[in-house]
Amino acid sequence: MDWTDRHCRVFHRHLTKHALLYTEMVTADAVIHGNRARLLGFSDVEHPIALQLGGSEPAKLAEAARIGVDLGYNEINLNVGCPSDRVQEGRFGACLMSEPELVAACVAAMRAHHSVPVTVKCRIGIDEQDEEEDLRRFIEVVAGAGCTRFIVHARKAWLKGLSPKENREVPPLDYARVYRLKAAHPGLEIVLNGGIETIDDARAHLDHVDGVMLGRAAYQNPAILADVDRVIFGVEAESPTRAAALNAIVPYVEQHLSRGGRLSNVTRHVLGLYHGQPRGKAFRRHLSEGATLASATADVLRAAIALVEHGAGYPGDRSRAA
Asked: Which residues act catalytically here (predicted)?
């Protein structure tokens, strides 16, 4: 949430054409009653794209799913993994793992009137409900409602005592439990999430599960996405360069600015692209200082590209204040 917005996804799509991209989690109430253009709008270039929903009322989730399908989303995902207090107060997220029958009812309602896949993202357990049989029962009950794809974060969630950030880091990863879940349910599609930091790691996990989901690693070091199509999907083409991906989003940036947007709305998502690379700090500093100005134009981004790729001074240095 607050990270994989439409601008982030457009940028990531220029690094990988085949990976499935996910929206931020949006509550069913927000989808039904909120500003849909702001919450759900996306560009055609983002396909394939999944809409991730939060909620626990089958009728509302069914309506939100219908809206998502009508807008053209390729998958509707129900988040049963988020551990934040705010989410728990709304009775959705990871706390729903204690109510598999309710999750099944939500999935059934969401699937009732369309053929777009409805998937579930969950944890391997919550609090004291942490036995392997608890996870298997949850999966089996929800699968009985027609869900065939589960994205499983290989950590349990402590709903009391740990912050959302701590829940992403403190509970130990248990990949083997997810592997065993797949072995026990060969007819289901099991996607592994949690702590995967490199494409080589992802490829190794694919010996045991059907897919992998990258979260923080893909955001903090987006350059790793450039190898996804070649290494994971077997596309016989060179991986896109960092500069090519940035140059590809310049027309999108100019269009966004012409509609009254800010340059930083887009460029905040590219700051990690040159992580660990020569002049990477200079690239981040240039964008962090220049893109936040209300008058900033796409020349600031062009200057950042020239700076990191060629070590060159660029008129964009002056455009930051223009």
From this structure: 82
Spatial distance between the Cα atoms of 300 and 11, rounded to a whole number of angstroms: 17
State pTM to two decimals.
0.92
| CA distance linking residue 28 with residue 25, whole number of Å | 10
Is 82 an annotated catalytic residue?
A: yes
244 phi, psi to nearest 5 deg: -65, -40
The CATH H-level superfamily of 6-231 is Aldolase class I (3.20.20.70)
Of 82, 95, 106, 147, the active-site residue reads: 82
Give the annotated binding-site residues for FMN.
Answer: 52, 121, 153, 193-195, 215-216
DSSP 8-state symbol, 173: P
CATH code linked to domain 242-319: 1.20.120.1460
The pLDDT tens digits of the residues spanning 239-282 come to 999 999 999 999 999 999 999 999 999 999 999 999 999 999 99
pLDDT, tens only, 125-138: 998 888 899 999 99
